[in-house]
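SAMPLE LOG
Freezer: B-3
Tube label: C17
Construct: single chain, 75 aa
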Amino acid sequence: MIKISGTNTYIDVEINGRTVRIFGELIIGGFVCFKNSMKNWLIPDNQSLTEEEKEEIIRKVTEKTAGSNMIITFE
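STRUCTURE (predicted):
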């Protein structure tokens, strides 16, 4: 299960009890995430993200928001 929340400058993505904060920019109809801001898990505290985890997060967020009113993309 995936939970996404945030503000106009970041989103928090919770997956399996772990949370990552991804900075970006709110745009009309969605949010653009900056991939380079994905470095550490917020929970557990400051544990580094692996490249595989980053790709899984991107895939799950993209799938969850596809076709919704708030499309999240990554650059």
